[in-house]
Amino acid sequence: MKSFIMSEVSVTKGNAYGATVKALELTGFGKHIKNKKNIVIKPNLTVPTESERGVTTDINVIRAILDQIPKPEEVIIAEGPGGTPEGFETFKINNYYRLEDEYGVKLLDTNYDDYVDVPVKNPLILKSIKISKTAFNSDFLISVAKLKIHSLAKVTGTLKNMMGVCPKKQKMKIHAFIQKSLIDLNTVKLPDFGVIDGIVANEIDECGSYPVKMGVVLASKDCVALDSVASKIMGINPRDVFHIWYAGKRGLGMADIDKIEIFGERIENIEKKFRTRSFNLRSDSQMVIARTLILVGLYEWSSENIFPYYRKIRNILKGS
Hints:
By secondary structure, the chain is of the alpha/beta class. The chain is built from 13 helices and 11 strands. A hairpin with a 3-residue loop joins strand 7 and strand 8. The N and C termini lie far apart (47 Å).
């Protein structure tokens, strides 16, 4: 478990590349990345849609990070979508394959990676968690999230973004009791650094496009503090987001806004009240199905059939 003497978060404005470079400079990214050899960057590419729609991580944010890494050709960019689309689709629509030619990086769909089953110390829900072997064994993992609302977790930040390094079956299980499960997940593997792309953010939903032009990028080595500031920028008190606030209580980082030093833009100058909604058919049905399978003891038995069940029940609820 990590301890923090001082939590610093940078908030910068500009275009995707320029704002990211400035945010990294303000948080001393260079000294944190120095001598790190096994680096994994985890973007948010949960669905195959362009970053301009507010849902996925802008490729220019990733470029700005890679340009600060001494040997970018050794970097692995890892993502594993939780639904039907495969990683190669989300990489393709956001032009991530260009990064292989430009920097020599490796793109990895974590849904096809080897996994390790890691015991959770003092679990809230999950006694163990399956996680990508590549992500788990990394020396330095950078979670590059999107500034957006989440219907179940309330916000999608760098902590929630870590779900992408778990296999689909594990993701579904996390969704059953998401707020507490995210604590267990980040207890097992906490990002070493975080960046949040808020150039075009997203309100109301985590996958459906409801874009909000913000023109900001956030960065910090303390991902709990980073997600707290991101929540505040979206008009949400981090105390009301269980997985963020409890992560602070667990010592994973600083969740108290009053104890976080912010460099760059002042929160009050960019804060905006994002719209939310109390019910989301996709996420809520996924949660109900996962909980039901767990409670009736069929979750493990139906491991290969969870998503067909989910789609059938969702279609029934939609009346199709």
